Amino acid sequence: MSLSTKERDRRYQNIRAGMDRENLDVLVVYGNSGRQGPNTGNLAYVSNYIPFSGQQVLVFPKKGEPVLFVGVENQRIEALRKSWITDCRCEAMTPVPAQAAEYLNAEFGGAKRIGISSLSMVPVNWYQLWQENYSGKEWIEAGALILENRFVQSDEELEKTRWAAELGDKIWERVKGMAAEGVTELEIRAEMDAVILPEGGTENFNMMGLGGMANGGEAPWGYVIPQTKRAMKKGDALLLEISPRVEGYWNQIVRVLTLGPAEDWLVKAHDLVRDARDETLKYLKPGEGMVSLVNAMDDVFKKHGQEVWPYGLVHLTGLDLTDYMITPKSTGEIKPGMVVTVHPMFNIAPNRQIFWGETYVVTNDGYDQMNRSTDELACL
């Protein structure tokens, strides 16, 4: 990621302040190339390195330079080329956790409290190896120490996020321009990729649900599932969850289009998710409790007698597509610099939902919409 050393120093200062607060002697950060929940992005946050394969460990001290351990030489070269870490190690024929344990014993053998990010992700056999081969006294779950710093994005981070938002809008416009009878789901996916790759997107989480609108909607309309060779036809509705990632930072926009006039049930459902969005945005401002966002959305759906889909209604978006899922049990408050995806959804029938959404950045006095695409139901 092309982030400055000024950004590095800001992050390191905040992380080390957290280590002091938690009385941690050293921080061990696990990373991989998958998507395993909110703590996945912690390695990228600390190192400025996005793993493209394998598993890694970063040892982050209270003083001095961090050391990154990787399993394959090309990972080491890539980390040296792009990350903030100048000490990247890859020892032939030695597993990554064993490399890390040897280094921890040599440099931090007397450590009493070792923070780890995160026990929810680290392979069990890695953790067992560290328990057996490292003399540290106490391992402390410390994923939140890094994660909480990620919730508020800096200007440099927001630049990447806005870039991802622009790509999301471009993908939506491309699909609207090419969707037609006979076009398959796989062809639509190919067009989505054709937008993101030349524009600097590193990956995406683009999914779709396609089905006929007749009789209240063909199951599984509204689900986002792997694409097939199914061709579009008149009377179909297409739901797109568009989530591009640029230099580590995600954006998400969810939109719906139809081939031919929209059925009445879909028009009403689409109007309702926009109403839920509008009510939610009344609470998207600094100092407001996070829980206010999901409560406002829930109230709209209940008022119309609808069953709320219980997951993903509002979430913070950043180095992970979902940095933090806001739920009725959330206790945090909204702060400037948070990137929030407002993602209303509800059940329209058994085994069928409507999804919708777009992303905003919280400002000092409210919010700014990051996606500029129209919120109209697109009827082609």
Task: Describe the overall structure.
The chain has 380 residues and is an alpha+beta fold. The protein folds into two domains: 146 residues, 3-Layer(aba) Sandwich (Creatine Amidinohydrolase, Chain A, domain 1); 225 residues, Creatinase/methionine aminopeptidase superfamily (Creatine Amidinohydrolase, Alpha-Beta Complex). Helix content is 35%, strand content 23%. The protein has a six-stranded mixed β-sheet, with helices on both faces. The chain has a five-stranded antiparallel β-sheet with strand order 14-13-15-18-19, sandwiched between helices. Strands 8-9-12-20 form a four-stranded mixed β-sheet. The model has no long low-confidence stretch (mean pLDDT 93).
TL;DR?
This protein is α+β, with helices and mostly antiparallel strands. 35% of the residues lie in helices and 23% in strands.
- What's the CATH H-level homologous superfamily of the largest domain? Creatinase/methionine aminopeptidase superfamily
Number of helices: 10
Using the coordinates above, name the CATH class of the largest domain.
Answer: Alpha Beta
Tell me the structural class: alpha+beta
**CATH topology heading of the largest domain:** Creatine Amidinohydrolase
Helix share, percent: 25-40%
Mean pLDDT metric? 93
Strand order of the largest sheet: 4-3-2-1-5-6
First-residue to last-residue Cα separation = 39 Å
Number of domains: 2
Largest beta-sheet characterization? 6 strands, mixed
Amount of beta strand? 15-25%
What would you call the shape?
Answer: globular
The H/E string reads HEHEEHEHEHEHHHEEEEEEHHEEEEEEEE
